[in-house]
Amino acid sequence: MKLHEIVDFLDDLLKIKEWQDKSNNGLQVEGREDVKKIAFAVDACMDVFVRAKEIGADMIVVHHGIIWGGIDYVKGVVKRRLEFLLKNGISLYAVHLPLDAHPSLGNNAQILRALDLEPIESFGVYQGKEIGYIGVYDESKPLDEVLSAIREKVNESITVLDFGSKDVKRVGVVSGRGSFALIEAVERDVDLFITGEQDHSIYHLAKESGINVVFAGHYATETFGVKALMRVVGEEFDVDVEFVDVPTGL
Predict the structure, then answer these.
(1) How far is CA 32 from CA 54, 89, 220, 230, 239, in A?
(2) What angle do CA 239, 33, 236 make, to 5 degrees?
C-alpha cells in the first residue's frame, strides 16, 4: 500500500482536523512511500522504534507522538529519534485526543466495552470538547465485581479510592491523565470514575464528594485505542499489523 493512502484514511477516520491539540496529530515523520507492515504502539520512543525496525515495519502509529506543537531544537533525544526514523525510512503517525474521544475506536469507549458497557454519554470536557464516556449497567453491580473486571480486562495493578457507593451503575472513563474530569463525573452522578494516572490532588475531592475512583495506569488505559485502530487498519488495507508492547508501569 501507499503511505499517502493510509494517511488519508486515518486522517478522515479520526477527524483530526476537527481537534485543537498540543499533539501534532497526523503524519509527523515521512518515511518510505510503500508500506507493507505497520507497527502500533502507545508511545513514540526508541524502544518502540527499534522493535518496529526488527519486525520490518515501514510505518508506526502511536497515541503519543514526538512533536507537540513544534520542534524547538534538533539535538539530543529529538535528533536521535528523527535520525533513526529517517535513516530507516520509517514513517510516524500520531493521534492523541481524537483517539481518546473516538466513539467506537477510542480508549474510553473501548474500556467501557471491555467492561460490558456501551459508551452512551460523552463527558470530560478538555480543550473545549468532551473526550470521555459514561456507560450504564442495566442493573447495579457490586463494586468489588466491577473492580475484578477492571483488573482482568484493563490492568492487574490498580489503585482504588473506594469513597462511594458499594453498588455501581454509572461508570465514567477518561484514560491517561484524566483526573481533571472528576468534578464533572460527580455532577453527572457517576458511581465509579476510571482514569489512568494517579493524582494526589483529587484524593480529598473524591472522598468529600463520595465517589469511587480507579487509577488503572496511564499506559494500560491507552493501549485500547491503538489496538482497536490496528484491527481496523488491518482489515481495510493489504498490510501486516502488529502491536508493539512497551509498558512503562505507570
Answers:
(1) 16, 5, 31, 20, 14
(2) 30
Show the domain range for 167: 100-218
Instruction: Please report how many Cα atoms fall inside a 13 Å half-sphere around the Cα of residue 130, on the Cβ side.
Output: 16
Same domain, 73 and 154: no
Beta bridge partners of 125: 130
Where is the domain boundary, 64, 80, 95?
95
User: Which of 63, 95, 127 is where one domain is finished?
Assistant: 95
User: What would the pLDDT profile of 14-49 be if each residue is shown by its tens digit?
Assistant: 999 999 999 999 999 999 999 999 999 999 999 999
What integer pLDDT is reported at residue 63 of this predicted model? 98
The radius of gyration of the chain from alpha carbons, rounded to an integer in Å, stands at 19
Work out the end-to-end distance of the chain between its first and last CA atoms, rounded to an integer number of angstroms: 35
Give yes or no: residues 199 and 104 share one domain. yes
